[in-house]
Amino acid sequence: METHEVYAIVAVGLFAIGLAAVFLCERFFKKIIATKILGGGVFLLLVSIAERDALEFADPVPHAMVITGIVVAVSAAAFALALARRIRLQSGQDRFGGEDDA
Amino acid sequence: MTALLLLKNLPAWLVILPIAGGVVTFLLPPKARGPAGLVFAWLTTSLAVLAGAVIAGGGSLSHALGGWPPPLGIGLKLDGLSAVFILMTGLVGGVVSFYARVYFDKVVENPARASMFWPLWLLLWAGLNGMYLAEDLFNLYVVIEVVGIAAVALAVLSGKNPAMVAGLRYLLAAIVGSLAYLMGVALIFGATGALDIGLAAAALETGPTAKIAFALILAGLMVKTAVFPLHFWLPPAHSSAEPPVSAILSALVLKGTFFIILRLWVEMFGVSLTFAAGQVLGALGAVAVIWGSFQALRQQRLKLVIAHSSVAQIGYLFLLFPLITVPLGMAQTPDWTVFAWTGAIYQVLAHGFAKAAFFLGVGVLVIAVGNDHKDSLLNMVGRLPMTTFAIGLAGVSLIGLPPSGGFLAKWMLLKAVFASGQWWWVPFILVGSLLTAGYVFMILRLAFAPALKETPLRPVPPGLQACALVLAIAAIVVALPAEWVTGLLEGTSGFGNAVEMISGGGEELP
C-alpha cells in the first residue's frame, strides 16, 4: 500500500470518528474537539490527494486549500471556545439541554 | 469611463464594497458605525439594483479576479439567476439595515456592543453575494464559512444566555456542515484536478467517487439550509436573536446555501443523479412543510412560531428537485420544469420579503409590549394597527393567498406537480398551506381580540413600523413583475432545464 493511500484511509477514519463524536459527546468542549478531529480528517485527505499520477511533483493546490482551511478552522474553533467559555461563566452550563424546542 | 469600469467589474464590486464597509465600520468608533454602516448598506443595495438592471437586458457578466482566468484564477459570474438572488438580498438588506440603524441606536441597552452589528452584517452580505457569484468550489467553501461565522456572531449579539447557547449549537452545526462540504470538494478535486464548477463537471465521471462526493456536499449544505431533519439548530437560534438579525438569518442566509445546492444539482450532479435522489430531497421538503407548520402552530412564543414557519417554507423549495430530475433523453423537453423553476424562485422571493416583514413586525411588538408571548398580541389591531397590517399581509403571502408572491410560488409548483404526474406532492403543498393559515389566523385572531387588562405600551421609534410594512407590501406585489423576473431568469443558462438521471425510474414517469 502506498503512503498516500494510508493517509487517505486514516483521513476517512478521522472524519468518521469526529462526526460520531460531535453527536455522541455531551459537553461543549468535547464537541468542539470533535469538530477539530473531523477537520483533521478533511485536511489529511486533501494532503493525500496532492500526489497524483499525472504530476511528477506534489500538487500545490490542495496544500493551498489546506492552509486556507486550517486558518478558517482555527478561527471557527476559537469562536466556539469563546462562546462555550462565556456560557460557562454566565450560567455554569457546559452542555446542551433544557432549552431545546425543535 | 469610470462608469464603464464599474459595470465591467460589477461582480467583483458586489463583494468588495460590503467587505470594505465591514472593515471600515469595524475600525470606526462605536457611535460612528451606525451612520457609516447604513451608507455602505445602501450603496450595496444600489449595486444590487444595478446588477438587476444590467442583466435584465439578457446575457451574463463574467469576471476573472485579478485578470487570472480559471483554472488558475477564480471566476465570478453574474447571470439572471444570481441577479435575482442578489437583488432580493439587496432590497431586503436595504430595508432591514434602516430598521437596524434605528433599533440599535434607540432601543437596545448597550448601543456600543450592538454597533458590532454593522461590520458583521456587511461581511455576511459580502459572503452572500459571493455565494451567488462564485464559480469555484473552494471559493464557495470560503464564502460559506464567512457567512456561517458572521451569522452566528450576529445571532449572539445580544449576549443573553439563551442566544449564546443557541448560537453555539448553530456554530457547531455550521462547522460540521461546511467540513462535510469540503470533504466532498476534496474528493471531486482528487478525481478531476479542477475546482472551477464547469471544468470539474466536465471532467467528472459517473461512479462511486462522484456519488460519495455529492452525498457529502449535499448533506453539508442541507445542514446549513436547515432542511428537515437537519433543522434542529434553527428555531432556537433564529428566535433568540435581535429582530433585524432574525430577519436576516431567516430571509436571506438560508437562501444562500439553497442557491448553491440548486446550482450544483443542475451544473454538476448530473453524472450521478437517480430518480431516488430527487425523490428523497422532495420527500424531506414535503415532510418539512408539514412538520414545520405543525410545530409553528404549537408554539407559545411568536418568534418561535415564525422560526418553525421558516423550516416549513424552506421545505417547499426542495420540491423543485424531484420535478427537474427527469429520465435520460428527456432533458429540456418537459414543459413543467419552467413552472417548477419559477415556483421555487418565487418561493425564495416571497418568503424572503414576508419572513423579514414578520420578524421586524414582531420586533416592534416586543419593543412596545416587552415580550413575544402570544397573549401580548391581544388588541394589537387597535394599538399598533400598522404593524398588525404588516404581519397580516406577510401572513397572506406565507399561506399563498392570491395575489401575493407566495400564491404565485405555490400555484406554479402545483402546476408543475400536476404536469409532471408526480401527484404525490399535492397533499403536502395543500395541507402545508392549511396549517400555515392555521397559525397566521391564530395570530390575527389574538390581534383582533379585546384585551382584559391593557398594559401601557412603550413608545416605538418612528420608522420601524414602516419598515415591516414596506417588506410585507413587497411580499404581495412581488407577484406583479413576474414577467420581468422570468425574463431575467430565462437568460440564465441553467434556468428551466431538467437534469437527466443516469438510471432507474424512467417507467414511473409518464
Question: Which range best describes the helical content of chain B: under 10%, 10-25%, 25-40%, 40-55%, 55-70% or over 70%?
Answer: over 70%
> The biggest beta sheet of chain A, please?
none
Give me the secondary-structure category of chain A: mainly alpha
Low-confidence stretches of chain B: 503-510
Distance between the termini of chain A: 47 Å
Number of strands of chain A: 0
CATH topology of chain A: Helix Hairpins
Describe the structure.
- The complex is a heterodimer of chains A (102) and B (510).
- Chain A has 102 residues and is mainly alpha-helical.
- Chain A has a single domain, classed as Helix Hairpins (Orthogonal Bundle).
- Chain A is built from three helices and no strands.
- Chain A has helices spanning 3-24, 28-48, 60-91.
- In chain A, α1 packs antiparallel against α2 (28-48).
- With 510 residues, chain B is mostly helical.
- Chain B has a domain at 274-279 and 290-510.
- In chain B, 72% of the residues lie in helices and 2% in strands.
- Chain B has 22 helices and four strands.
- In chain B, α4 (80-106) packs antiparallel against α6 and α18 (385-399) packs antiparallel against α20.
- Chain B starts with a helix and ends in a 10-residue tail after the last strand.
- The relative contact order of chain B is 0.11.
- At the A-B interface, α1, α2 and α3 of A face α7, α8 and α11 of B.
Describe the secondary-structure layout.
The complex is a heterodimer of chains A (102) and B (510).
Chain A: H1 3-24, H2 28-48, H3 60-91
Helix pairs in contact in A: 1-2, 2-3
Chain B: H1 2-8, H2 10-27, H3 30-56, E1 61-64, E2 75-78, H4 80-106, H5 111-114, H6 117-133, H7 137-155, H8 161-192, H9 197-203, H10 208-225, H11 234-240, H12 243-267, H13 275-298, H14 302-317, H15 320-324, E3 325-326, H16 336-369, H17 380-383, H18 385-399, H19 405-420, H20 426-448, H21 464-477, H22 482-490, E4 499-500
Parallel strand pairs in B: 3-4
Antiparallel strand pairs in B: 1-2
Helix pairs in contact in B: 2-3, 2-6, 3-4, 4-6, 4-12, 4-16, 4-21, 4-22, 6-7, 6-12, 7-8, 7-12, 8-9, 8-10, 8-11, 10-12, 11-12, 11-14, 12-14, 12-16, 13-14, 13-20, 14-16, 14-20, 16-18, 16-19, 16-21, 18-20, 18-21
